[in-house]
Amino acid sequence: MPSQTLDDATLTGLVADATTAPSMHNAQPWQFRYTRAGRTLTLVADLDRAMPEADPATRALHVGCGAALLNLRVSAAHHGLDAATALLPEPSAPAVLATVRLGIRPADAPRKPENEALAALHPAIRDRHTSRYPFDEQAIPEDICAQFADAARIEGADFSFLVPPHLQTVLELIRDAEGYDRGDPARVAEQEYWTRDTKTEAPVDGIPDYAFGPRDASERATTRDFAGTGVIPGRARVPFEKQPQLALLSTPGDHPMDWLSAGQALERVLLTATLHNVSTSFATQPIEWPDLRWLLRDPVFGAGHAQMIVRLGYGPTGPRTPRRPLDQVLTIEP
User: Fold this and answer.
1) What pTM does this model have?
2) I need a surface site. Which of 99, 153, 164, 194 has the fewest CB within 10 A?
């Protein structure tokens, strides 16, 4: 491996790209440690940002960190760097989620095909936002849907669009879970903790009120309503799509390694969707209830463990949400 050093501007750019990833309630539960001597970035779970009520096993935390890891790999490829990645490299330290050793290639060295594919996703990193707005009824073309499935498969996950009657079952489970959430005071309090009133604060994390989106006039929306039962003056009530296009992302196993793979697969799908001008949001409510999660699997063709429900379609891309300053998430060591 060449001995050149990695300049700080490139390093901070890599981590800034990584932290644009989505995470549950935008908690951004990650820390990055960089060692100059080994030219290695270590991704560590920030367990102070875990959610013991809705995510007691830290499954969603791992998924979010996996999404940040995929962004890091994309950014490294964009900058012409090789990224040798190891998941869960220290069994005695489960909070150490991944290491990424960065290799600097000579300028005239050809780029590996896998790096070419990752680098092609880079323009979407800063444009990807979660949209809690209604989409239109236009169907996503089959060839684009196939690209989403391929993107997930590369990272070891399955990504399948739901069709009736399975779609109707999942829609019912989402609404059931939303009701469960609102009937659980501890979960309500946890969600409120991660919402932000931008009239009184300048947030660096959480879900700001401007990103709640409108309320569905028909009460059929699949996205989580961060306003809960509260009333926001002036918030619009508009009809959402009658038949949302939902896809289920699943993995063969259901352990931390699988969760990290799911996060990388999810982000690869989301960046691919962004490049195709397809907007996305999430419907994770039933995944957070064990007695509902197992029902999400297709009763005929389903396999694996559900890790995310993604809503896709054509419509507003959603606003940019805040990110923690880099000095809060990046530590540089000799």
Assistant:
1) 0.96
2) 164
